[in-house]
């Protein structure tokens, strides 16, 4: 019996070795050599395959760059350092990329929002959203099940008081959370942003306030007082044009529900690496 087992084992090993050598020879003689430029570009990319550049992943982006089909500053997580490295490899000038961070446009925490039902289904935002828009009276706000936190590659998101919050000192601006959020509560904003809107409601003022006491009521005080014409109320909610906003804070001072607030997004710490 032992001899039979050993014989079978030897046969399996020899067959595996034979096919391994055969495969190696096939790759050596018939395999397609990787473009050296693609390889070098791939080495300087972060490798998280987030798709924020508009391609399926870092490999596709590398190939498109090598063929000259796109700009070298599209990698949001890699930011300026990656764009510069790619520019040196390709021998082209690189436009300075805009550093972006994720921001949650909701302040409907447990003390502010009204619960319309008790949800006891699958604990994901997508599942809860499919069930009458979630348990909160505001159907535009953060559900708080943490789908965004689960997908965050830099562990920059947590759920606090029933809503998602972003640690922008860790956020790399990949945009995965933006794509994952079924309510579109999260967006990427410039890191230099000084004022932000903590609301996503499209309801009219009275209805929005009934659902959440921190909601934007569309009163347009911010729009009227903005010295740079950087704020417009669209669909009953304030929207900031970050190309015009100077961060003076006048809008935040005049907002009756404090849904407009001053913010500060710190840079990533030096030497930061994703876990």
Structure report:
With 275 residues, the chain is an alpha+beta fold. It has ten helices and eight strands. The protein has helices at 2-30, 36-44, 58-66, 79-90, 125-130, 147-151, 176-180, 205-211, 221-225, 250-254; strands at residues 100-104, 157-160, 163-166, 186-190, 195-197, 231-234, 237-240, 260-262. A two-stranded antiparallel ribbon has the order 1-4. A two-stranded antiparallel sheet has the order 2-3. A hairpin with a 2-residue loop joins strand 2 and strand 3. The two termini are 50 Å apart. The relative contact order is 0.12.
Question: What's the short version?
Answer:
This protein is α+β, with helices and mostly antiparallel strands and 275 residues long. The protein has helices at 2-30, 36-44, 58-66, 79-90, 125-130, 147-151, 176-180, 205-211, 221-225, 250-254; strands spanning 100-104, 157-160, 163-166, 186-190, 195-197, 231-234, 237-240, 260-262. The strands form four sheets. It has a two-stranded antiparallel ribbon with strand order 1-4.
């Amino acid at each position: 019996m032992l001899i039979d087992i050993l014989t079978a084992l030897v046969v399996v090993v020899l067959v595996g070795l034979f096919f391994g050598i055969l495969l190696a020879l096939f790759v050596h003689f018939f395999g397609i050599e990787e473009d050296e430029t693609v390889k070098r570009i791939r080495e300087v990319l972060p490798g998280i395959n987030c798709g924020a550049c508009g391609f399926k992943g870092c490999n596709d982006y590398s190939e498109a760059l090598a063929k000259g089909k796109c700009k070298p500053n599209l990698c949001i997580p890699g930011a300026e350092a990656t764009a510069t490295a790619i520019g040196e490899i390709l021998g082209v000038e690189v436009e300075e990329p805009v550093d972006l961070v994720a921001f949650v446009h909701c302040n409907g925490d447990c003390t502010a929002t009204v619960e319309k039902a008790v949800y006891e289904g699958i604990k994901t935002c997508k599942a809860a959203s499919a069930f009458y828009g979630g348990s909160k009276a505001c159907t535009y706000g953060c559900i708080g099940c943490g789908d965004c936190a689960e997908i965050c590659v830099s562990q920059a998101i947590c759920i606090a008081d029933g809503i998602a919050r972003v640690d922008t000192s860790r956020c790399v601006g990949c945009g995965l959370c933006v794509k994952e959020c079924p309510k579109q509560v999260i967006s990427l904003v410039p890191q230099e942003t000084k004022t932000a809107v903590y609301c996503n409601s499209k309801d009219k003022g009275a209805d929005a306030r009934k659902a959440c006491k921190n909601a934007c009521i569309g009163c347009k005080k911010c729009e009227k007082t903005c010295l740079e014409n950087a704020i417009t109320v669209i669909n009953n909610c304030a929207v900031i044009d970050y190309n015009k906003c100077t961060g003076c804070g006048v809008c935040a001072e005049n907002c009756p529900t404090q849904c407009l607030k001053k913010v500060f997004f710190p840079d990533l710490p030096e030497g930061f690496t994703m876990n």
